[in-house]
Design goal:
alpha+beta; seven-stranded mixed sheet; 36 strands; about 30% helix; about 30% strand; elongated
Amino acid sequence: MSGSAATPAPQIRNVLLLGHGGTGKTTLAEAMLSVGGVGSGRGGILDYEPEEKERGHSLSLATASFTWHDHTINLFDAPGLPDAVGDAYPAIRAADLAVFVIDASVGMQPQHEQLWDACEREGLPRLVFLNKLDRDNARYQEHVDTLRARYGKAIAPVHMPVGVESAFNGVIDLLHNRAVVLADGARREVPVPAEREEQAAENREALIEAIVEVDDALLERYLEGDIPEAKELEATFARGIATCGFFPVLCGSASMTVGVRLLADFLVGEAPSPADRAPVVGADGTERALEEPTSAYVLKTLSDPYVGRVTILRVLTGGLSSDDHLVVARSGASVRLHQVFTLTGKEQHPIEVAAPGAVLAVAKLEDVVTGDTLHAKGAPFAVAPVPTPEPYHRVGLVPQSAGDEDKLSTALQRLVEEDPALRVERSSETNQLVLHTLGPTHVVVTIARMQRKFGVSVRQVPVRVGYRETLRGPGEGLGRHVKQSGGHGQYGIAQIEVEPLPRSDGFEFEDRIVGGVIPNQFIPSVEKGIVEAMRKGVAAGYPVVDVRVRLVDGKHHSVDSSQVAFETAGSLAFRDAAAKAGVVLLEPIMEVEVTVPDDLTGDVMGDLSSRRGRIQGTDQARPGYTTVRAHVPEAELLDYVGELRSLTSGAGTLEMRYDHHDEVPANIASKIIEEVAQDD
């Protein structure tokens, strides 16, 4: 709908739906749209891409809006699968409230905790919606108590179910001591059932405790035994949410459309608007009020095969109009807003103007990517993008044909602009095109999108590890390149001494020539030949590093010597010296930090040790979680993202960075060298 274009900031609600995959976020979003008169509630509005339909899960951020009680509610439906969650992070900057959707038959899951922590870092207000209370094994009180144990008394139960599982048919409003039930297809307000009065009273007390903590005067009265009335509590309610003073817990069943209207009512009545969260803070700490010059934040870019590039914006300040000219803060480039519209899934609704806080889309903006800020000319301003999780799962990409190779670079660039969790690089050591993702499913989905959107077919191959070679000890080598069989010949002889250097000391070349046995103009050629031989490797074709070479003797010919001859002589001399000195294979060692629940620490340490890892120590990350630090060969980590997810049921988080190269054990080195020889 296009209502957000004319809606003033105080009547806008920008709501980000977050949670683990499968909790019913999209079902809840579409139920809210349905009660707001958008769609049928039977799905298909937000998860419309073929890859999403095939897997039955959201894989990209989707946006939609509806009108409720003269307010515009903009929904951001973020994917919750570990391999797709990268889209959720940029949307945190565009939202004014995050709704954490939890499956009441399962409870808190790892992705909830990771996203909650991200919202905490960014100061984004949050509420919890316990969904699927009609399911078998659904539980309410257990999950509320778990949340309060994890996040403290700021977790405030606002709603509780009349019953659970097959008995679920309504929601109790704890603040006002009333229930809303579904009976004979109609919603009715009724008193709190007698059998739920005691539990409701206990939860209402927890709610009141959370509210009064936000207001010193109310807290003092409460501690003296004076319980504030509901109207007094209501006055503090919205302020407490907006300031992250407490986090309400609502509940319902999106599939039954129970609790959905109450949630929409709550968003309009209590959730913060863009005006409540102003001013907007820039990356440099400067502040900008809503009425100040225009600025807008890019929360998502899409590549549509028919429309082309589509950019989704949150207007931060100043408002926007069709045909406005803005500046990209990152690049300084000027862009014009041609086609401006709102999006509900893939449906477009043209608009002309948008107020601060509005969410809209613009077609065909070039050089604009997710996380960018656009601002009015002459009024520079930029907000900091929210960091996305590092994509540690890597695969090599090989185009299926020459035609695919020609289009591959452009396709990958567009996909990286669309998906903030993707990285692409051409490895400087292996010359392999490497795709960095959040996991195996992320790879499959990316390759499918590349084929569907850009007609580019690729296959994934294992990442080649950046092995290196070095010398085991000192040695001497002679390089002789002599061809004098008539005509202009080739003549160059070089004798060298080599020795290994400490790790990471690089390459040193020393000229020890005396008496002019090799003329000065040919000495750089000898060095060039040595460097080329080191680049090509000796034992397994990997670059040789950390070596000192001394050029100690040689011979030249007054006619037949040349730069090429001495380059060849230098190369031959190095290969001869390396063979005598012995070659050691080095492998990259990664510094790994794995954070897991305490009870999984032993399993993770054992798994890392089985990967030839050396445990460096452990630290207490936070209550109930331990961080394991280790040095692990990169070759043992190529499948680690998926394995860690499986080992910890998704509860483990990973940080990984290159640390150093170290010697490969002899038995493994011999296998690597043998495999290289077979490939050749």
